[in-house]
Write a structure and sequence with these properties.
Blueprint lengths: L1 H11 L23 H9 L6 E4 L2 H16 L7 H11 L4 E2 L2 E3 L8 H11 L4 E4 L2 E4 H8 L8 H8 L3 H32 L8 H7 L2 H13 L15 H4 L1 H23 L7 E3 L4 E3 L7 H21 L11 H17 L22 H31 L8 H13 L10 H20 L1
Antiparallel strand pairs: 1-3, 2-4, 4-5, 6-7
Helix pairs in contact: 2-7, 3-4, 3-8, 8-12, 8-13, 8-15, 8-16, 8-17, 9-10, 10-12, 12-13, 13-15, 14-15, 15-16, 15-17, 16-17
Length: 444
């Protein structure tokens, strides 16, 4: 409330405040509307230009949560009832209908967040219990009131990269889950084949000098604790087994970098301008510029593409004919991931009459990483299903307890593929089981 009072004083002194007293973007040199309620319309109306399908309602709600946290930090000078309204909406199933296409992540996620702001006002569309309807109806059914806004409130709702941050955070979570699963599945595969686990030797990986590889090696050694090598394997395993601590370790290092970016983004004030009453300052700058998340999300895309390359393996000798379809689908999934692996963050081009003369395109990076993280989970599910079937058709029973637990859980939930049957549900079921067991195994 203190900073809101400071804003009122600044406006009373006729000091220029972007978006409250001025036009937007390249039109900053022109005066805005005198009535602040009209200025809210002036802010939001021109942003109704998004295209494409709606974003997933869960992602839209995650975006509202991130935006609420940024605004609640106080430096944006918004009315307290704006944060209260966001919190109230999150207490229901309300989700604004936000278009996927339209943000460049430079002056914030303007177009999708504009749609969110309009939905909170009862305009446009929203979801309630997953059903799309006019936003006014959704608010009424949810017991929410339309949100009144002035110019500063409206701009603060849209002038941050909350969608980019939310999508990056969700993608990171999904990729970390798959990273854990692949560590477990690699250990199960090594156990089924009777591999010597010397490729995970602690001294070997310490000499390698990368902290991620050391950490992954320790995890995989714990998963293979109790393993009995067959003694019949070649001296050196294929790279897809022997080099997994180095590959997955590099992924771990990259994921830790993304952890830091996401943590900073979630704690940041992503807006412009910011208000500092103690210094009597209204500071105009670029805290809405989503470059950190753009880089991080592109790194996540590279990580998941290589994880997919590793997981898209034949699961063992003697697989039944029915799994050939799963192999084809898995190959198609990794091809889809690899096709989209070109970084978006290097594709800057000017827009908004060159007001935004360089842009990060983090929204594209983040949404793509989130999409691909779901495909990666299906690839790991395909591998898990193949490992379950490998044991059925003659591979040895796992000797390491952690590996045996996974195979037992898969066998309990998924019948052998004999005779052939559609397997899409089994792939998804295997993915969920492997993720659950990976979390349990790595948290012991």
């Amino acid at each position: 409330m203190y900073k809101r009072q400071f804003l009122a004083g600044v406006l009373g002194e006729d000091r220029a405040v972007y978006g409250a007293t001025t036009g937007f973007g390249a039109l900053v040199g022109y005066a805005g509307r005198a009535d602040q309620r009209d200025q809210a319309d002036n802010t939001l109306a021109h942003l109704g230009a998004g295209q494409g399908p709606d974003l997933d309602p869960d992602l839209a709600r995650a975006t509202l949560l991130v935006r609420a946290h940024s605004l609640a930090r106080g430096a944006s000078g918004v009315s307290p009832h704006v944060v209260d309204a966001l919190v109230a909406a999150l207490g229901t199933t309300f989700a604004p209908a936000m278009p996927r296409l339209g943000s460049v992540g430079a002056s914030g996620d303007l177009i999708p967040l504009g749609a969110a702001a309009q939905a909170l006002r009862g305009r446009g569309h929203a979801y309630l219990y997953g059903v799309r309807m006019p936003a006014g109806d959704a608010l009424e059914k949810a017991g929410l009131e339309p949100l009144p806004l002035d110019g500063r409130d409206a701009l603060a709702l849209v002038n941050g990269t909350s969608l980019t941050t939310a999508a990056t955070a969700l993608a990171l979570d999904r990729i970390r889950a798959s990273h854990r699963v692949i560590q477990l599945l690699t250990c199960v595969l090594a156990d089924l084949l009777g591999c010597d686990p010397q490729f995970l030797d602690a001294g070997l990986l310490t000499a390698y000098g990368h902290t991620g590889a050391t950490a992954v090696g320790a995890t995989m050694r714990s998963l293979l604790d109790g393993v009995t090598p067959s003694g019949t394997r070649p001296l050196q395993e294929p790279y897809s087994i022997r080099c997994t601590p180095q590959l997955l370790g590099a992924a771990e290092d990259a994921l830790r970098y993304a952890d830091g970016v996401v943590a900073a983004d979630l704690a940041s004030v992503s807006d412009n301008p910011l208000f500092f009453p103690g210094a009597d300052q209204v500071v105009h700058g670029g805290n809405f510029f989503g470059q950190p998340a753009a880089f991080a999300a592109d790194v996540l895309t590279m990580v998941l593409a290589q994880l997919g390359n590793l997981a898209e393996l034949a699961a063992g000798p003697g697989l039944q004919h029915g799994l050939q379809g799963v192999q084809l689908a898995s190959t198609a999934l990794i091809a889809e991931i690899r096709r989209d692996a070109m970084p978006a963050s290097i594709q800057s081009l000017p827009t908004n009459l060159h007001n935004q003369d360089i842009i990060p395109l983090g929204t594209q990076s983040a949404l793509r990483a989130l999409d691909q993280s779901r495909l990666l989970a299906l690839i790991t599910g395909s591998l898990a299903l193949g490992l379950r079937q490998a044991v059925h058709v003659g591979a040895r029973t796992p000797t390491a307890p952690a590996c045996a637990r996974l195979i037992a859980a898969l066998a309990d939930a998924i019948a052998p593929i004999d005779p052939d049957r559609p397997l899409e549900e089994d792939v998804r079921r295997a993915a969920a089981i492997a993720e659950t067991l990976a979390v349990r195994s790595l948290c012991v």
